[in-house]
Design a protein that fits this description.
seven-stranded mixed sheet; globular; binds pyridoxal-5'-phosphate; three-stranded antiparallel sheet; single chain; about 15% strand
Length: about 400
Amino acid sequence: MTKFGAHRLDTLPAYLFNQLEWKATAMREAGIDVIPLAFGDPDEPTHPPIVEAARQALLDPGTHRYSTNRGRPEFREAVSGYYARRFGVPLNPHSMVIPALGAKEVIFNINLAFLDPGDVALAPDPGYQIYTAGPVLVGANPYPLPLRADNGYLPDLGAIPASTLQQARVLYLNYPNTPTGAAATSEFFIEVVDFAARHDILVVHDNVYSDITFDGYLAPSFLATPGALEVGVEVISLSKTFNMTGWRCAALVGNADALDTYRRLKTFVDSGMFGAVQLAGVAALDPEMDSQVAESVIAYERRRDLVCSIFNRAGIKAEPPKGGVYVWAELPGSFGSSFEFCEYVLDVAAVATSPGAAYGPNGEGHFRMSLTVADDRLQEAAERIVAAIR
Ligand SMILES: *Cc1c(COP(=O)(O)O)cnc(C)c1O
C-alpha cells in the first residue's frame, strides 16, 4: 500500500507479473546476461528513409508548435492511401482517420470514449492486457471470450449470455492474434459484423500485426468485411512493422461517427502527435518501404522456425504462428503454473519470457517468447530453456 493513490489502481490485475520484469532488470544490473524475450520490441533500427524524413521534419520550425488531434493532412492521406492499396478499403482521410500515440494509447482511451461505468467490454482471453485493464480503469466490466485451439482461437459469440449482451458496448478483437499467433477466417469476420449490428456493439479490431504474416498468408483488414465500416474501427501501429516502438506512431480508422466521438474525448486528453513523427509515419507508409517490411517478415519467419524446431525436438509443443513476433508454447512437464515456469526459466536459464496467465486465465498452461533478438541470441535462448528443463 502507498499513501497516495486511487482505489481504481487496486483493481488492476497482474501485479504479480511485474515481479518477473523487476527480477530480470535486477539480474541484468548484476551483470547477468539475460536474453530479453518477454516483450515484442524489434531489435533492428528504424529504416533509414523514415529516420531521414523525421530529421528533415525536425529542422522545420513548423513542426515545433502544437499539433492538432485531427492530425496533419499528409499523415491522414498516407494512412488512407495505405488502406486503399493494401486492403482495398476506402477511408475518407478527413473523417475516417485519426493519429494515435501508439496502439496502447488509443486502446486505453477508447474505453473512456465508449464505455460508461457498469457497461461491458467483450475481450479475448488470452489477449493484450489493455483490452481488460482499460475497461476496469473506467469502471466498466471486461467479459472474457475464451480463445481455444479447438475453435481456431476464434471466440464463440453465440455463447455470450443475453444479459451480458445487453450491457456490452465494445468488442475487442485482434487478428493476426497475440499471444496465440492465430489468423481469423473471413466467415468469422462476417459473423462479427452481423453480431455487432444486431446488438449495437462497437467492434474495435486491433490490427497491429496484419503486415507481419508467414507462409504466404496475407491478413485482411476487418474493415474490408461487408458492413464493417458501419460497426467498427480498427487500430494500426507502425511500432512492430517498421521497427518504430519508441516513436509512438499509430492510427485509429473506420466508422466516422465513432471517430467523431473519439476526437471529442482526445481534445481533453493530449495535444496530438509530434509533427515530425507524423511525417516519419508518412515516409513509413510509402509503397517504397514494402521491400524493407518484406525483409523483416523473412527474418521473423526464419526465427519462428528456428524456435519451433528446437522446442518441438525437445518435446515443448509450439504451433508455428501465422503472424506476429512471438511464439506461443505449451508449458513442458511438471510446472504448476506459467508464472512458476517463467520464473524458473529466468532464474536457471537467464531468459525472460512471459507467462500465459498474464494474458488472461485461458492463457494459463502456456508461455510467450518474442522473436525480437538476433538469430544467434534467439537460438541460444531456446537452447538454454531446453537445457534448463531437462
Ligand atoms: C505491441 C502491441 C500493441 C501496442 O502497440 P503500440 O503501437 O506500440 O502501442 C497493441 N496491440 C498488440 C496486440 C500488440 O502486440
